[in-house]
Amino acid sequence: MKQDVQVSTIMTQNVVKLNLTDDLTKAESLFKEHKIRHIPVVSDNKILGILSYTDLLRISYAEAADDDDETVDVTVYNMFTIGQVMTRKIVTVTPGTTIKETAEILATNEFHAVPVCEGDLLVGIVTTTDLIRYLLDQYNS
User: In angstroms, how far apart are the furthest CA atoms of the chain?
Assistant: First the structure.
């Protein structure tokens, strides 16, 4: 397997993004519509943080024990902003970071997606699913 393949070869370039002014209901809609688990939060394409579907589940789970899930979600979502729920301390990689280095970052941390940035500007995202697909391609070639 090649050791020096850049992450830019496997990253998603057309990234679904959120702004701080968006609400959590929109975030949930984007997660479901695009069947994704992580959405970078940006301002003028400058990375500010990342929101995961798990972040949404955490805030709505405690309230949903006995009530109608959809009503509870909307009520709970209106209590928080994206800025309050997103992860601000993020690790990013550059397009030139190797796939191996990116895999090491994901394997040693408790997250499953890494924004790909040139400086502060978001240019892509790499997930554990992208890495698994890459590995499968290596075995099939």
Answer: 52
